[in-house]
Amino acid sequence: MKNFIALLAFTLFFSCTDNSALEAYDKDQFPAEIAVKGFSKPDIIQMRLNDQPVSINGSTSYTEKIETKINFVLDNGETDELGIYNQQTGTKIASYAINYDNIKDYKNLYFFNLPGIFLQTYAVKPQVNLGKVGFEFIFPNLGEFSGSSLEGVKGVLKRENGVVLAEFDNIGKKDFTNVKIYNYFSATAPVYLELYKPGTTEPYTGSSIIKATIKQDIGANMIVLQEKMENGVLVIKGDIDVADYL
User: Fold this and answer.
1) Chain segment 136-152, per-residue pLDDT in tens
2) DSSP codes joined into one string, the chain
3) CA angle 172, 174, 178 (to 5 degrees)
4) pTM (2 decimals)?
5) Residue 80 CB: number of other CB atoms within 10 A?
6) Could you read off the pLDDT of 208-239 as tens digits, one per residue?
7) Residue closest to 92 by CA, chosen among 82, 80, 107
8) pLDDT tens, 42-99?
9) Among residues 137, 123, 133, which one has the least CA distance to residue 195?
10) What pLDDT is stored for residue 101 in this prediction?
11) Which residues, in sequence order, are CB contacts of 192 under 8 Å at separation 6+?
12) Is residue 45 within 8 Å of 83, Cβ to Cβ?
């Protein structure tokens, strides 16, 4: 009889235990940390984790240099969303679906939010000596309109008379190239960037030479190349200079 009572009490105890309390121990959890280094100008932005504003130094909206670490707990099988929004208009600029399996891809989050373009990259304005010109390039939408499957292109920077100023072996989608420096020669003469398949003298798409007119400022130039269509024709623009904002 005593054994029966003990068994009954044991059964009743576990049948009455709150299942939600046990579930917390059933899930795999992982402490996540995202180091954010961003820049936004002139827009004021807000980051939200699962729709909750992220506070940086007591503020939930920020502009220009943005640095913080976001700490939270990831549950296996669930997805957390980190979104970047224009604070004034409420427009979503970018979002990242973060889960237990891909958190390592988001340990560092870099971005530039500039007029007309959002770059997911990190960059530091290069040091260029007085009287010199320095160029770095990035090509984030390579292939968007050309259909090219290349991950990078070769760039040859030239003067109007064809003299080569600098060569860039691989201008890619994700990172700025290393800086190339030459002597400043004119405040008005344009420079041209010709784009080829890496390691060749073949245009990266089509058969005609692909050339972009690039503005030349004394000092550092960090140019964002963009494929665009104008009147049905593919053109390459290089009119966004990240260095102007740093």
Assistant:
1) 999 999 999 999 999 99
2) -HHHHHHHHHHHHHHHS-HHHHHHHHS-EEEEEEEEEEEEEEEEEEEEETTEEPPBTTBS-EEEEEEEEEEEEEETT-EEEEEEEETTT--EEEEEEEETTTGGGGSEEEEEEETTEEE-----PPP--TTEEEEEEE-TTTTTTT----SEEEEEEE-TT--EEEEEEEEESSSPPPPEEEE---SS--EEEEEE-TTSSSBSSSSSPEEEEE---SEEEEEEEEEEEETTEEEEEEEEEGGGG-
3) 60
4) 0.77
5) 19
6) 999 999 988 999 999 999 999 999 999 999 99
7) 82
8) 999 999 999 999 999 999 999 999 999 999 998 888 899 999 999 999 999 999 999 9
9) 137
10) 87
11) 157, 158, 159, 160, 211, 212, 213, 214
12) no
Strands 29-49 and 108-114: parallel
Count of all residues that appear for the chain in the document? 246
The answer to whether residue 19 scores a pLDDT higher than 70 is no
